[in-house]
Write a structure and sequence with these properties.
- GO terms for molecular function: glycerophosphodiester phosphodiesterase activity.
- Keywords: Signal.
- This is Glycerophosphoryl diester phosphodiesterase.
- The chain has about 350 residues and is α/β, with parallel strands linked by helices.
- Helices cover about 30% and strands about 15% of the residues.
- The protein has a domain of about 240 residues: Alpha-Beta Barrel (TIM Barrel), CATH 3.20.20.
- The chain is built from twelve helices and eleven strands.
- The strands form two sheets. An eight-stranded parallel barrel has the order 1-4-6-7-8-9-10-11, surrounded by seven helices. Strands 2-3 form a two-stranded antiparallel ribbon.
- The longest helix is centred in the first third of the chain and has 14 residues.
Length: about 350
């Protein structure tokens, strides 16, 4: 099936203008070329590291959403890091998934009740062991600075859509708005209109990625509508795991032949998620075919291979090293122009 699928895309690839990446370009520029020219790179699956990429082989090596995790993801060759954005008491954007600090730091209470200076006194912890590290809560500006020229960064907005202009303003001030991907859930025309209005106030020069989930949307027609409204580089598709279904056999209603055709016409990537959700069954966002199946059950073909065969050319995962390794070994990755990358850290983040 994969050979047939790639053959169908050949004509579309010829029709597009070809991006020419070279070793003289920054790593981020080379990645951006593949992100922005989906039809030229249907034979390459980009890997996004969820919450910056804190895990390897089922073990948490770094605190989630930490600079150490980002540096590790850059070193192993991930193309995108996903981080979560909230706001401090004094109005600065900070990198934090939960509204409360208790799970991910050695502090207690709501992040919004702490100033940045107070948050800097908190230390991030290793989930599972509770080990306290020397990593601190990062501001958005600090996190962007670490990723500049090295990797794309997906900002998961934990505030409302009205916060997007402020986030992009920080990236624009650093001269790296083009490396930033922001995303919002879309499910009807009213939501499309409200997000479009917020983005209009933001200005251009960044990447917007819609999210569509199969609890609200059941066919490719809405995705085509969304594609025309936003001209995105990618659309994130969610296949919620049904309670009575162990493993999806089809990928659900959104990962259809028609969706793949719509993505080609629109020139956007299909983004799939294999990462875990706490206290939910494995593969909760991927019809049961998540990282647990790939790594703990040693069935990566049934996870990364399954979603790649259904048209996914971006996979967001808690296990970026495992995903990259399997995809590369099985012909789903095209090497980049030769360019030195930092060595993968030998140890985890410093622990007190």
């Amino acid at each position: 099936m994969r050979t047939i699928w790639q053959s169908l895309l050949f004509a579309a690839g010829l029709a597009a203008s070809v991006g020419h990446a070279s070793a003289s370009e920054t790593r981020a520029r080379q990645i951006l070329d593949r992100f922005e020219h989906a039809n030229q790179w249907r034979d390459h699956v980009l890997v996004a590291a969820h919450r910056a990429g804190s895990m390897q082989a089922g073990k948490t090596l770094y605190p989630e959403n930490s600079i150490a995790a980002v540096e590790g993801s850059i070193a192993i060759g991930a193309e995108i890091v996903e981080v979560d954005i909230r706001r401090s008491k004094d109005g600065e954007f900070v990198v934090m998934h939960d509204s409360w600090l208790d799970r991910t730091t050695n502090c207690k209470g709501e992040a919004a009740n702490y100033t940045v200076a107070e948050l800097k006194r908190c230390r991030l912890v290793i989930e599972g062991t509770g080990a306290v590290t020397n990593e601190t809560v990062s501001t958005l500006r600090e996190m962007l600075t670490v990723t500049r020229d090295k990797i794309l960064i997906n900002l998961d907005n934990k505030l409302d859509v009205q916060a997007l202009p402020g986030m992009i303003a920080v990236a624009r001030d650093l001269g790296m708005a083009d490396q930033v991907i922001v995303k919002e859930n879309l499910w009807n025309q009213q939501r499309i209109d409200s997000v479009k209005a917020a983005l209009a106030r933001t200005g251009g020069g960044f990447q917007f990625m819609p999210i569509i989930a199969d609890d609200a949307v059941h066919d490719a027609a809405f995705a085509e509508q969304v594609g025309k409204a936003f001209s995105p580089g990618a659309i994130e598709l969610i296949n919620w795991r049904a309670g009575t279904e162990t493993l999806t056999e089809t990928g659900g209603p959104l990962f259809s032949t028609r969706m793949r055709a719509v993505s080609v016409r629109g020139g956007w990537h299909i983004w799939a998620n294999t990462y875990a959700i706490v206290n939910k069954p494995g593969g909760f966002l991927s019809g049961g075919r998540g990282d647990e199946l790939a790594v703990q059950a040693s069935l990566p073909a049934e996870t990364y291979g399954f979603w790649a065969e259904r048209g996914a050319t971006i996979i967001q995962t808690d296990e970026p090293k495992a995903a990259i390794g399997w995809l590369a070994a099985n012909g789903f990755r095209v090497p980049y122009a030769e360019q030195a990358r930092p060595a993968e850290p030998a140890n985890t983040a410093s622990i007190n």
